[in-house]
Specification:
CATH topology of one domain: Rossmann fold
Radius of gyration: 21 Å
Number of strands: 17
Order of helices and strands: EEHEEHEHEHEEHEHEHEEHEHEEHEHE
Strand content: 15-25%
CATH superfamily of one domain: NAD(P)-binding Rossmann-like Domain
Helix content: 25-40%
Number of helices: 11
CATH architecture of one domain: 3-Layer(aba) Sandwich
Amino acid sequence: MHPDPASLQQRPADKTLSCPICGSRSLTMFMDVPQMPIYCNVLWESREAALQAPRGDLMLGYCPQCSHISNYAFDPSNMDYSQQYENSLHFSGRFQQYATDLAERLIERYDLRGKDILEIGCGKGDFLRQICRAGGNRGIGFDKSYVPDPERDAAEPDVRFVIDFFSQAYAHEPADLIVCRHVLEHIDHPRAFLAEIRRAIRPDRSPVMYVEVPNVLWTLRDLGIWDIIYEHCSYFSPASLTYLFEVSGFHVLDVREEFGGQFLAIEAQPAPGEVLPSARTRLDFEQMARDVQTFGERYRAKVHEWRTRLSDLVQRKARTVVWGAGSKGVTFLNIFRDLQAVTLVVDVNPRKQGKFVAGSGQQIVAPDLLRDYQPDVVLVMNALYLNEICDMLAALSVTATVESV
């Protein structure tokens, strides 16, 4: 059974539920998608195992008080971020350039040279290494999914990794910059999480905190619907992200969109006293309420459009591949898994190649395989990578039709 977009509807919230950011119970439930893979970034060793991947429901609710959106069907006991978790984007030249520009901007803006960088949720450590190398900084990264690389770790002795979640136990670690990229959206109680970080900051330090999350405005307005996944229990707008930091004792320095509007970034410092929330000045709440109200209909229309197009590809027996085995690709493939329209999934991350997509079961292959396979259609899951992918396909003499999804 595939997720039924017809189940999208607005209805009053269960009054026992409350917004995890501001505590309001005046919620509007506006989206249900049943039985999606719990993990998009845990891949499987066989097709059979991938098809049996654990699933969970999505029930998105909107809070008109702070504009935060949450998955109220999320169960944190389902989650276990182990070393099998793989979501690195650093194998893409396009993303590497973004990360390089970000590291250089933070170094210049906050004079991060010879300083201490602490990263919460550092993944495989790519960005932490980069910002430490570029500024001659010392780094410590925390992540349960980190996989030690003895040779690489030995070559960069000023960067250390702890295979654990960050907590008060590590409050003694110094920091001039605290980085937390694409972690907060996975936290079901983000206010408690941020409060713990605030308590762990040493009183003799006033580090800048840089946090990056998916931008829910891009999801709502640009219909980035393939980014709606079970792993993400929180969907932040500029207002809800600002409110969260202010009520958690931070002075907000900057909030902006990044990476083609797909990300939100916030920079903040611990405030010496109470901060009065100013979130409502950062968003047109009436416009966002309208976006939420119309989202279900627009979502259904986009899903219907792609179901029709994929059905046509099946009828034409077109060899169709998806480029991108991240969250977008996994969501897309699972929504249409009953069609069996896509034969293979391509990804430049070698740690994903040879594995199978959770829920839908396609094998993930390296781009080089397309030279012999010669697909008819390549569906690109993120338009920001379109030029990079077209260049790779041309180098492989692949003449397929290329289209962003």
